[in-house]
Amino acid sequence: MHVLVTGAAGFIGSSLCDHLLAGGHRVTGLDNFDSFYDPALKRANITQALQHPSFALCTGDIRDTDTLATLFASNRFDAVVHLAARAGVRPSIDDPLLYEDVNVRGTMVLLEAMRKAGVGKLLFASSSSVYGNNVKVPFAERDPVDHPISPYAATKKAGELMCHTWHRLHGLQVACLRFFTVFGPRQRPEMAIHQFVRRIENGEELVLFGDGTSRRDYTFIRDIVQGIEKVLDAGFGYDIVNLGESQTTTLAGLIGLIERATGKTANIRWLPSQPGDVEQTWADLEHARNIYGYAPSTRVEEGLREFVRWYRSCPR
pTM of the full predicted structure? Predict the structure, then answer.
């Protein structure tokens, strides 16, 4: 299978490219090496894939219709995994128009390029943030998601709706994958676990928001890429799929696990909760397990130990 992966040099994208290449797939990656965080880190992420004979990299933006037209004209893709996006809840509150442009318009440009090229299968990276502060847990795909509490979440919900529209109008097979707090090696440096480990390792103050009782369903990157591959190999019309771990950890509990993984004590300063942050995330995985055979197996404490080993191995 020849797969186009957008956002190929990012955390999830580069991990997925390596996984698909190891599984015998041909992969083309698209990335614009945006400066949201250091592009040099993204180039390091993609180093292994670039050495593989079945990988090609295209540098470009999903909003650029000419780039996409050329890419689709010169390749015959069997499927697209659309991971490229402007990420982050809090930054989306500061610059909502940029998030709309990249995440909504960019997705629409990609959908149209696929339609014109006759590529019929798409996996769209959505987010658990679309559930907002849903009081019913665990979160199931059939739950209403009409009340996002950040621009980022709203753009992901909009992306799901556009994918459904292209499915109904043009027969595109689409699976919208709702990721639950993915972590592991190559995680973006501004993401919580990466920040927490860096600050604890350096003996710096750790600024935390809330009272420590907020909960997240932390999902290790290896489980995520295996889940993506299982959906990619399946048949579907239009579907929404939770990819999480279905176990929750409080913020205070997470810090305790990181302290044990690093062997160091955190110096914590607590501040009030931030706008846009949800109180909890928790994935109902019944659909993902029954339909796609998704079976996450990495507990958060094991994943944290692996992340710390990776972090300590990185050049400073």
Answer: 0.96
